[in-house]
Amino acid sequence: MLNILLFAILAFTVVATLIRPSYGLACFISARILIPEVVRTPGFEGLSFNSTLILIIVISVLVNGLAKTYVRLVKDSYFKALVFFICSCAVLLPFSDYEDLQFQYNSLIQFLLTDILPVILAIAVVRTKWDLKIVIQTFLWSTILCCVYAIIAYLMQKNPYVNYFQTITGWRDTSLVKEVWYTTGRGVSTSGTFLHANGFGYFISMSIPLFVYLQYTGQYNKRTIFIALALLIVNIFLCKKRSPIVSIGVFLILWMYLKRKTWNVLLYMKVFLLGAVVLLAVFIIPALESIRSMIETSFFFWDDKLLAAKDVGGSSWELRILQVTYPFIKVKDNILFGKGFGWCSWYLNQYELHPVLFGFETILSTAVCQFGILGYLMYYMLFYQSYKYSRPYKYGKVNYQLLALVTMIVLIVATGLNYFFFFGIGSVIMNKQEIFMHEKDIHSYSVL
């Protein structure tokens, strides 16, 4: 039955993409949010379901108009930046102190397929206001469905939907077993439609800044966006991950600071009153004790004694410091080029955990381990180009694109680079929205 459903989704994506490429991109976004990434392609179990969707859209776009797509992409600055990043990784890899060159090249190809190609597709297929509207509406409603189910799963204290896919695929990650549902200090958590709570937390942190920006533009249904934002904020506490709480906390503080000149005293009082009521409820209601512990340890993330007392798990401040400094010792024999792309994943596959760096839980450790001191430069250029692309016009009192970037940086410093395609597609959405708001849409409502 499941295989029939998956084949139906694939067939629908093929037809939708041939009708209009943006419909195919919308199918991918919906599937990526609502279908756990562990699902494989029926008959081609070596290929994930998400990867198959990406390849279908790529082939359909090329069939529809290779020449036009090529011309449009080569003129796009973000496309050039993404290609430069991948090519740099490929060129530098032979100079690195690698352990398994084939594994690392395979990891690079996988990153290209799962995280870079979706962003490139967004650049290629979002040509008109209608294309953008389809993509955004799909993103919004898929998020709402995911978050509603996450709340239901939290109340049920189990996740039958995700557990079903884990069972039929034989997926098991021993490093996450305790964190998915029952950790001693965190209590019950939820992962929504994602494979684990970590991934759900990444998604929440990347989505909130984008939806706040869309709310500001006033081009879409504000009620729908508000519902999506409200559900995301609720789930940021229910997923019981400290990094999303910290990153969104930074976002909210900066957002309120940048909007200080447009807010009156009464509005500030309403916001602070609402926040006070929520915090009071969390600190008074016994059933919310685990959420209270997460909030306390998130706000005082440098206090290892508090972390140990609350027993909520996660990395200590001492470990965070080691994650920044120890990678330079690890690559001391090849400090310029490091150990190669995907080396951290290779190491974890071989030994499960590193004796000092554990799971390489920050971009500051993975960047140096994989690329040496060049790693900081490479990731700086990647995220700088993402920000520059997302804000083609410098105007307005609140720089929402900068807020999205800062939120992303806080997140990856705390957890590492995961689900980059969500951030990249968000950058493309902001770019297209800015252009359509300030320039006449010269394209007609037609396929490529």
From TrEMBL:
Cellular localization per UniProt: Membrane
Organism: Paraprevotella xylaniphila YIT 11841
TM annotation in the entry: 48-66, 78-96, 108-126, 138-156, 194-214, 267-288, 356-382, 402-430
Top-level taxon in the UniProt lineage: Bacteria
Keywords: Membrane, Transmembrane, Transmembrane helix
Keyword NAD belongs to the record: no
Protein name, as recorded: Conserved domain protein
Pfam families referenced in this protein's UniProt entry, alphabetically: Wzy_C
Annotated O-antigen ligase-related domain residues: 227-379
Recorded coiled-coil stretches: none
